[in-house]
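Posting here for the record, re: nicotinamide-adenine-dinucleotide.
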Amino acid sequence: MKLQGKVALVTGGATGLGNAFVQRLLADGARVAIGDLRGAHDAARAHDTTGSRCLGVAMDVADEASVKAAVQTVEAGLGGIDILINNAALFSTLVNRPFEEYSADEWMQVMRVNTLGPFNCAKAVAPHMKAQRWGRIINVASTSALKGLANMAHYVTSKGAVITFTRVLARELGAWNITANALAPGLTLSDQILKNDDHMAKFGEAIRKSRSIQRDALPADLVGTVSFLASDDAAFMTGQTLCVEGGAIFV
Ligand SMILES: NC(=O)c1ccc[n+]([C@@H]2O[C@H](COP(=O)([O-])OP(=O)(O)OC[C@H]3O[C@@H](n4cnc5c(N)ncnc54)[C@H](O)[C@@H]3O)[C@@H](O)[C@H]2O)c1
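Prediction output follows.
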C-alpha cells in the first residue's frame, strides 16, 4: 500500500485510461477523486459505494472557476490533493485530417482542454502541495508529440506543450519537493478509442509494427508507471517524459 494516506485527483477519470489510473491508485491505498465533464459520480460509485475512498466531482478542466470549485470539493471530501493526474484531454473523438483542413476554432478547442486544462489544475493544487512540501503532478502526454505524428496537428502540438509545461513545473516546484513528470503512451486501446474506426484503421497496424514489442497497448500497460511516478520511489525524478509504448521510440 505505497500510496496509503495520499489523495489523488484524476482528471478525465470517468472513462478510458483515466479510469484505469483510478483503479490502480485505489489499489495502491490512495483515496481518489475522479474529475470529469460527465460520468464522474457514477464512475466513483462503481469503485466505492461509500464515497469515503473514491469521490466523483463534475469539472471542466478548461474552466478555471470549475477547476477551483472541484478542488475545493475534493479537499473538503477527501483532504488536500497530494497527487494530480492531468489526464483529461480531447483525443478519442477527434477526426484525423491534414493540418490545413482544421479550422482555427477546432485548433483552439483542443488547445483549451489539452493545455489550459493541465495549467488550471496544476495551479489549483499547487498551494496545498507547497504548504505540505510534497506533491506529485503527472501529466499525460503522448509519444505522438515526439514522433510528430501526421494528421492530428492540433492534438500532437498540444501534447508537445504538455511535455514542455511538465519541464517548467519541475523547475518551478522542485524547491517544494513537488515533482512533475509526463507519461507518454502510444496508441492504447481504451474503450473510447476502440469506437473511433477511422483512427484505428489509419494508425492501428502501422503503430503496432513500429514497436519493439509488436502488439497492441492496453490501459493495464500504463498503470504501473503512474503508480511509480506517484510514489516515493520516484522522489528524485522530475521533469521527465516516460514513453510507455513497447519501445516504439527511444529518447
Ligand atoms: N488512448 C490512447 O491511445 C492515448 C495515447 C496517448 C495519449 N493518450 C492520452 O491519455 C489520456 C486519456 O486518453 P483516453 O484514450 O482515455 O481518452 P478518452 O477520450 O477516452 O477520455 C478522456 C476523458 O477526459 C474527459 N474530458 C474531456 N474533456 C474534458 C474536460 N474539459 N474536463 C474534464 N474532463 C474532460 C472525457 O469525458 C473522458 O472521460 C488523454 O490525455 C489522451 O490524450 C491516450
